[in-house]
Design goal:
The C terminus is likely disordered. By secondary structure, the protein is of the alpha/beta class. Strand 6, helix 4 and strand 7 form a beta-alpha-beta unit. A ten-stranded mixed β-sheet has the order 3-2-1-4-5-10-9-6-7-8, sandwiched between helices. It folds into two domains: about 130 residues, HUPs (Rossmann fold); about 150 residues, 3-Layer(aba) Sandwich (Rossmann fold), CATH 3.40.50.620. Helices cover about 40% and strands about 20% of the residues.
């Protein structure tokens, strides 16, 4: 596999609130570990912004960030490079131009921030699947902790070598252990031979014996992932997905209210174009042909991480 570039520029959408301060603080520690530069973006939610307004908001954002990051410096002793940008409209409306102009490698957002003019539609989980770069959803009720063990929920039968390579490089940059897990249900036991074969092929693609691969049987995908992450005492959950169906369900109110383990650690989504429809009736799959039109070899395996 060819060499993949590290995470060097992290886009952080910021509001002048306590949650915005917590997000900058977490992003600062993340940047100190990875050596990345922070791109602090404030979206006004208004159709337009004057030059004077933009100048004042940029200065306010810079002062806001310097105050927060100076406290990080006292703790770690490492400086954090950052850039401040102010734009009109909501975040989702700015994402396309932001990708082009800022060469962003990762988007970091508050996982439980509710819908408002800032995010436009839905909470932050709705951002997953809308960008080509990874989206990190942060549990801001938790202080930053070293990211030493990453668990990636994926589908061994629907692989994308380039996505696997990016996830592997991400774990290496964090100097973290990586575990890949594929969840299947009891009524799919008859496919275990095929699943084991797919897992072996995934191992060959990774070409890295330090990465752990696991096949897990559970009654449900979301519960299975959540329980596995807790059992492994993981510091981060990674999803390979082309839509926001799975991250939205993992961060639903049901889990948030019970403070499930996976809602207390970062969730990172890597976009992957799936070859098969998922079981969640997501937006992407709703646009596809009915399953009866699929080739037999594609119908024989279910998709779990979409």
């Amino acid at each position: 596999m060819r060499k993949v570039q590290e995470i060097k520029r992290v886009l952080v959408p910021v509001t002048f609130t306590e949650s915005g301060e917590a997000l900058i603080r977490y992003a600062g520690f993340f940047a100190q570990v990875t050596g990345a530069q922070l791109i602090l973006l404030h979206c006004t939610g208004q159709p337009d912004v004057t030059y004077t307004q933009k100048s004042r908001l940029t200065q306010a954002l810079r002062a806001f960030a310097q105050r927060v990051l100076s406290n990080n410096l006292l703790v770690s002793g490492n400086f954090v490079r950052f850039e401040c940008i102010v734009r009109p409209r909501a975040l989702q409306e700015n994402l396309e131009s932001t990708e082009t102009n800022l060469r962003t490698d990762l988007l970091m957002a508050d996982s439980l921030l509710p819908a408002d003019a800032f995010y436009n539609k839905g909470h932050a989980a709705s951002l997953a699947g809308h960008t080509d770069f990874p989206v990190m959803l942060m549990p801001l009720q938790q202080a930053y902790a070293p990211l030493s063990h990453l668990v990636c929920a994926t589908d061994f039968t629907d692989r994308d070598p380039s996505v696997l390579q990016r996830i592997t490089r991400f774990a290496e940059q964090l100097k973290a252990k990586l575990t890949l897990v594929h969840v299947y249900t009891p009524d799919q036991r008859w496919q275990r031979s095929n699943l084991h074969q797919a897992m072996r092929k995934t191992r060959e693609l990774l070409n890295n014996n330090s990465i752990k691969l696991v096949l897990l049987e559970d009654d449900g995908l979301v519960d299975g992932i959540g329980e596995f992450v807790e059992k492994e005492n993981a510091d981060m959950l990674i999803l390979t997905t082309q839509d926001n169906f799975l991250p939205r369900n993992l961060l639903s109110r049901t889990y948030s209210k019970t403070m499930a383990y996976h809602t207390q650690i970062p969730i990172v989504t890597f976009r992957q174009e799936k070859q098969k429809p998922c079981s969640g009736s997501c937006t992407n799959c709703a646009k596809r042909k009915p399953e009866t039109d699929l080739k037999p070899e594609l119908k024989s395996f279910p998709v779990y991480a979409n």
